[in-house]
Amino acid sequence: MSQFIGLDVGTQGTKGIVIDLARGEAVARASRSYGLIQGLADGAAEQDPQTWWDAVVAVVREMVSDPAVDAPRIAGLGVSGQQHGFVPLDGSGQVIRPAKLWCDTSTAAEAEELGVPAGFTASKILWLKRHEPTSFARLAQVMLPHDWLNQRLTSGAWMEAGDASGTGFFDPRRRTFDLDRMAAIDARLHEWLPPLVAPDQIAGEISTEAAEALHLPTGLPVSPGGGDNMMSAIGSGAVRSGVCTLSLGTSGTVFSFAPDPVADESAAIAPFCDSTGGWLPLLCVMNATGVVEEVRGANGDLSALTEAAGSIAAGSDGLLFLPYLSGERVPDLPRATGTLLGMRPGALDPPRLFRAALEGTSLSLGWGVDRMRALSIEPGTVRVVGGGARNELWCRILASVMNVRIERLVEAESAALGAALQAAWCVDGSGAREKLEALSAPFLRIEGDPIEPVAADVETYAALSQRFRAEVGRIYD
How far apart are CA 422 and CA 80, in angstroms? Predict the structure, then answer.
């Protein structure tokens, strides 16, 4: 049986994985880290797309050189990419300027005008038109990050419904672009978008140039790929009803498969398409591991802080952290800053501050989960993935805040895994969801025992949640 490559190209770095279908496990992995462009205006978050490509080349070369990888058996490749970014290309396919990312809040005014969440691609295009008209005059093609990488791999251009549904000018119910929303940005926008492809079809083949750079065979099939949340859904098993995934990365997301579109009048839950032909109602908050790392970076070793914070009672002795260090998307507060409340002598003791950060991010996510429940999306058991999944204390807090059972997957890098599994599904060619589930099953092993909510902490956090929401309304509204 074959091996497949999955790549997850994110904000903080690129991770790669090679899976072996016969063994039902990952046989190689590699990663490269990078950061944002420094020295930009407040709220701006940008990266040079070439940084992504350089990381992809380094990661794939390292994996292909691993003795466990049998190059002739590599049968396909898939790419997961950070959502909502805007890669502007000119008529010759050259990048016009650095890409604005999902966490860029400098386009908040444009987002408000267009009626889309802060961070969505639509606001970035209008921002370019308003603030950099010379660059906008060169615009001939609009790409999302993973679309641009697919083009570098294959020399072809396409989009798929999952990632496209995070642009702000896509109709997820009908799985097509919204011409009226596009016209509000520019009458020519529909001309600058690549065509849509189905999630189960091979979208392209690796070009000679890319094959030489990656040390892969020319003509290797490339799947459509998708946004990181869509690929993470595949890599955590959220491709059928009843499975809910919580991803703790730079941002925090909660999502679940739905066989039909889900609309939320409050706009807190995004009505995304998934990358299997279904839908993926999704909550996204902009502040998750970044907040925790900010506190950790100022106060010492992560393991020691976590152990000490675990001895502090739920509620952090009254210290409440509103964790909006990077603004926020849900609730829609792009210009917000973080706030500490309830400070008394000793409140800034590092373990207590660290626990308050874990609780604040958890309460923020729990607020969105309650909204999902109001829409009849019951999370039930939640699978936690991403870098934050390794912190057991955080997972215990989340279990009690959300009053759910928490499971942690052995393979925490679900987006890279999902990209590899989607590639295997596309090469299989059946298009059957049952086939995707069968391919995925061996890779979805649960680590350790499930984490159950603690009744006393559930009660504590229910009261703290009400305080959290009231304070957000008082301070930011």
Answer: 10
Residue 264: give its domain's CATH number.
Answer: 3.30.420.40
Q: What is the DSSP letter of 188?
A: T
Residues 304 and 208 both lie in one domain = no
Q: Are residues 60 and 113 in the same domain?
A: yes
Token pair 């210009």 in the structure block, residue = 335
**Could you tell me if 295 and 357 are in contact, meaning their C-beta atoms sit under 8 angstroms apart?**
yes
What is the pLDDT of the chain when averaged over all its residues? 95
Q: Tell me how far apart the alpha carbons of residues 471 and 477 are, in angstroms, rounded to a whole number.
A: 10
pTM: 0.91
Which of helix, strand or coil describes residue 58? Answer: helix
Tens digit of pLDDT for each residue in 143-183? 999 999 999 999 999 999 999 999 999 999 999 999 999 99
Domain that holds residue 106: 3-228
Inside any domain, residue 170: yes
Q: Based on the domain organization, do 79 and 210 belong to the same domain?
A: yes
In angstroms, the CA 69 to CA 403 distance is 42
In a domain, 429, yes or no: no
Q: Is residue 440 part of a domain?
A: no
Q: Say whether both 20 and 131 belong to one domain.
A: yes
Q: How far apart are alpha carbons 435 and 133 in whole angstroms?
A: 48
pLDDT value of residue 417: 98
In a domain, 417, yes or no: no
Strand partners, 171: 176
Choose the final residue of a domain: 228, 259, 282. Answer: 228
pLDDT in tens, 195-240: 999 999 999 999 999 999 999 999 999 999 999 999 999 999 999 8
Tokens of 399: 């279990």
Q: What is the pLDDT of residue 299?
A: 84
- Check: CB of residue 354 under 8 Å from CB of residue 295: yes
Q: What is the distance between the alpha carbons of residues 135 and 49, in angstroms, rounded to a whole number? A: 16
User: Is 48 noted as a catalytic residue in this protein?
Assistant: no
Active-site residue among 228, 274, 332, 457? 228
Indicate the SS3 state at residue 391: coil
Q: Are residues 8 and 139 in the same domain?
A: yes
Interatomic CA distance for residues 320 and 33, integer angstroms: 32
Tokens in use for 263? 């609309």
Q: Are 180 and 69 within one domain?
A: yes
Which runs of consecutive H residues, i.e. helices, occur in 4-94?
49-64
How many structural domains comprise the chain? Answer: 2
Pick out the chain residues at pLDDT < 50.
none
Report which of 88, 8, 100, 89 is spatially closest to residue 52, judged by C-alpha positions: 8
Q: Where are the alpha helices (DSSP H) in 300-335?
A: 302-309
Instruction: Determine the pLDDT at residue 467.
Output: 98
The verdict on 251 and 375 lying in the same domain is yes
Distance of alpha carbon 320 from alpha carbon 314, whole angstroms: 11
